[in-house]
Every structure is written in C-alpha cells, then in structure tokens.
Amino acid sequence: MSFIKRNEIKKTIYEAVLIIAAAIYLIPFYIMFTQSLKSPQETMMNPLGLPHVFQFDNFKKVWELMHFEVAFMNTFVLTLVSVVGIALISGMCSFTIAKRKAKGYQYLYYVFVCGLLIPFYMTLSPLIKLMKDLNLVDSLMGLSLAYIGRGVPFAVFLYVGFIRAMPHEIMESAVIDGCSPSTLYWRIVFPMVKNVTSTLIILNTLWVWNDFLFPLLTLQSASTKTIPLAQYMFYGMYSSQWNLAFASYLLSIVPLVIVYFFMQRSIIQGISTGGVKS
C-alpha cells in the first residue's frame, strides 16, 4: 500500500470520527429543537421523533410568559456595560503598567495578577455584603460594576504581556512627533492590540450573558431579571410542560447563536491570535 493511500485512509477515518463526534454533540440540540415544536402530549409519547404538527405557538407563549423582551434588554445592557468597561479600564491601566519604569507599577501589576489566584467563590460572600452596603443590590449598573471588577485582572494580565512585546521604537517615534499619552494609546497602541481586545470581548460576552449565579444572588425584582434567571424561573413555573420549557431554552440561546454566526471569523481569529503572544 502506497504512502498516499495510507494517508487517504487515515484522513477518512479522522473525518468519520469527527462526524460521529459532531452528531453526538448535536443530539441535545436536536432534542431541544424538536421538543419545542411539539404539543405537551407528543413530548411524552414521542420524545425523540419529529413533531407531527409543528407548534410554533409555543414560542409566542414563552415570549409572553417570560416577558422575554424585558429579560433580553436587561441582559444586553448588562453585557454591553460590563464588556466595554472591562476593555476600556484594563486597556488603559495595562498601557501605564507596561510602559512605566517605576517599580510601583510592577507591584500594581502583581496586585492584578493576585486577583486571578483568588477563587471567585471565596470572594462571593464579602462581595455581596459590600454591594448591599453600597445599595448596589437589585441594580443592573451595580452588577455590571461587580463584573468589571472581576474581569479586569485577567484582561490586564493579557494586555500587559502584549503591550510589553511591542517595539519601543514605534512609541518613541510617536512621542517625538508630539503625541500625548492619550493620543499615543488610542492612535498607536489600541489598534495594535485589537486581537487581544476581540478575544476579551468574546470571552467576557459569553461569560456575562450566560452567568446565572451572580444575577440570582443580586437581582431580586422582575424588572431586572436577565435571560438565564428569567428562564430558570420560567422552568420552575412550567416544568411539567416540556414543550414550553424547551422553547424557552431555544429562545435563550438564539441571540448568542446569531452573534456567533455573524462574528465567527473574528471569534476564531481573535481566540487563536490572542491565545499566543507573537
């Protein structure tokens, strides 16, 4: 058997394994999609088969019962403020830490790194207590501040490494040409770390959008519920109606699927480039 034929056989085997793995991975999505389009009786009698009659009214019922538009706007605002805040604060802070020669800035960097070493659940109780003392409980802006504080250490860790690797000659030339520190950052440095910024935006968006525990502990009124929290409460009320429960699951993931569909190239490039410093 020739070398080329052996490679073709190996390639075929790898592709078959990947196809089987993808099919297994998609089974839960198939069940969720088909169950969301069935009647309550059919979900019990025919759980794995295709629906005989597509019940698209399930999504309309879920939308009205969940008040999905309110939960969506709350989640969108919370995610937008948190992600933008993390990117802006950590980027400017990292630029100062990376390019200042004083030892105090290096110690400040170590303080941020220590934020990565402390487990989140160890800080959860004192953080909730602090938010209560500052009247930030049951507030989307208060919760966004907590997300920013939690996300900045990792962002600083990434930004500092990339900014330190930049050629000093570029920044020195900009300073000689009369660039102020703010102009130097926004015109020179920030465009050069766009891949890191893309990575952080993607990872933090997935984190904040899908987070359940923190909103559960801090958001109390119905007007501030996020999508995961509203979906959880909906399931608790309608757990016996699996068709509505699965329809609520599908509605909850649709926004992220749409974002990924339009940004998949940026997502792959940002994560692959941001994961390895060049």
UniProtKB/TrEMBL annotation:
PANTHER family to which the protein is assigned, alphabetical: ABC TRANSPORTER PERMEASE PROTEIN MG189-RELATED-RELATED, SN-GLYCEROL-3-PHOSPHATE TRANSPORT SYSTEM PERMEASE PROTEIN UGPE
Keyword match Transmembrane: yes
Membrane topology: Multi-pass membrane protein
High-level lineage: Bacteria, Bacillati, Bacillota, Bacilli, Bacillales
Predominant localisation class: membrane
Family assignment from sequence similarity: Belongs to the binding-protein-dependent transport system permease family.
Pfam families in the record: BPD_transp_1
Species per Swiss-Prot/TrEMBL record: Paenibacillus baimaensis
Name assigned to this protein: Carbohydrate ABC transporter permease
Cellular location(s): Cell membrane
InterPro entries: MetI-like, MetI-like_sf
Domain ABC transmembrane type-1 intervals: 72-263
Cross-referenced CDD domains: TM_PBP2 (cd06261)
Keyword terms of this UniProt record: Cell membrane, Membrane, Transmembrane, Transmembrane helix, Transport
SUPFAM superfamilies with a match to the protein in the record: MetI-like
